[in-house]
Write a structure and sequence with these properties.
The chain is 38% helix and 26% strand. By secondary structure, it is an alpha+beta fold. It folds into 2 domains: 162 residues, Nucleotidyltransferase, domain 5; 165 residues, ATPase, nucleotide binding domain (Nucleotidyltransferase, domain 5), CATH 3.30.420. The strands form 5 sheets. The protein has a 5-stranded mixed beta sheet with strand order 3-2-1-9-10. Helix 4 crosses helix 10 and helix 7 crosses helix 9. The longest helix is centred in the C-terminal third of the chain and has 24 residues. The two termini are 26 Å apart.
Length: 342
């Protein structure tokens, strides 16, 4: 008997899952664990743990074990994935088959670590697919043809840029730039320029509400809550979209440069296809105001944002699993704990 088939998008900001027989995403939770500081006992995971950000006592430690293109804490990552897989599988007897995302260009050791975490978390078999390729499959791009397609997947911890052709990645680059870095840049800007300290959740909300890669036609602002650095007292203060845009402009520039650098090494025939069809922008940060226009201006190529951009990679992993012979024909072998040789 065969267990569930699960497509798993393992991002540094969130873990998203799609399951065979279900439409769309069945799980999307922040990649956060709350642990007892002394014992390491898990107290909460996902959304429940994320709500504790900035509010928990010293006896509780919050950790985000998935960081950038690798894994910051192997054991914590394994436990986080175990909790999520148990939530999906419930009391199923047979272990699931999992196709999970990996950043393009990671090392063999990082692949082995990620595979080991997925398998020890409860998967019977596992396979890794480059995140941009999974996103392409998820948004319905025909990747099995000799035709070049560029995917820019902007997430919480990284931005993955890849050119896809004939079912595999031709050129790819992953840079450690995403929503998390922008949150930190907003916090730093307010600290240096406004003398105000804000928490992670506040800076994230300012990014979502006001953030943009270009200026809006109308001036907008929001009221935020923070703490005076001079006196340590709480206060409400106004933040403008212009300030937030200024704070995150280095990250926007870095994303545009990453796209340019991949285009520079893309073979001419594939580059012609991309120029004709455009660049596909997806990921959790793809809805940042004006990001599509900023990339288009930097490259001279139009940028398209497909529907369901946040769940695209998980859905793409599931499609790869459920499409007959897709994985074997394109060189993506299944691995078990026995064959992983760990």
């Amino acid at each position: 008997m065969v267990g569930l088939k699960i497509g798993l998008d393992i991002g540094s900001g969130a873990v998203t899952a799609a399951v065979e027989g279900n439409k769309g995403v069945v799980l999307s939770e922040p990649a956060v664990l709350a642990l007892e500081a002394e014992t390491g006992k898990i107290l909460a995971a996902g959304e429940e743990a994320c709500r504790m950000t900035g509010r928990c006592p010293d006896a509780i430690r919050l950790t985000r074990p998935l960081l950038g293109s690798g894994i910051a804490e192997l054991q914590a990552t394994q436990e986080l994935l175990r909790i999520f897989l148990e939530k999906i599988c419930k009391n199923k007897i047979f272990k699931p088959t999992v196709a999970a995302t990996m950043p393009a260009g990671i090392t063999n050791l990082e692949k082995r670590n990620l595979l080991g975490c997925v398998l020890r978390a409860g998967a019977g078999r596992a396979v890794l697919i480059e995140e941009p390729l999974a996103a392409a499959l998820g948004i319905g791009v025909m990747t099995d043809k000799p035709y070049g397609t560029m995917i820019v997947n902007v997430g919480a911890g990284t931005t993955g840029v890849a050119v896809i052709t004939m079912g595999s990645v031709a050129v790819a680059k992953t840079v450690p730039v995403g929503g998390n870095l922008m949150d930190e840049q907003i916090k730093h800007y307010l600290k240096v320029n406004r003398g105000v300290s804000v928490g992670r959740l506040t800076s994230e909300e300012l990014k979502k509400t006001l953030g943009g890669a270009k200026m809006r036609d109308e001036a907008i602002a929001a009221i935020a809550r923070g703490k005076e650095l001079s006196g340590g007292m709480p206060l409400y203060f106004e933040v403008t979209a212009q300030e937030v845009n200024f704070a995150i402009r280095d990250s926007v520039d870095a994303i545009c440069r990453a796209v340019q650098s991949v285009l520079e090494v893309t073979p001419p025939e594939l580059l012609r296809d991309i120029a004709d069809d455009g660049i596909f922008l997806c990921g959790g940060l793809s809805d940042l105001y004006g990001l599509d226009d900023a990339i288009s201006q930097a490259t001279g190529i139009r940028v398209k944002i497909p529907g369901n951009v946040t769940g695209a990679a998980a859905i793409g992993c599931l499609r790869a699993l459920t499409t007959e012979n897709y994985l074997s024909q394109n060189g993506y072998p299944f691995v078990t704990l026995e064959t992983l040789d760990i």
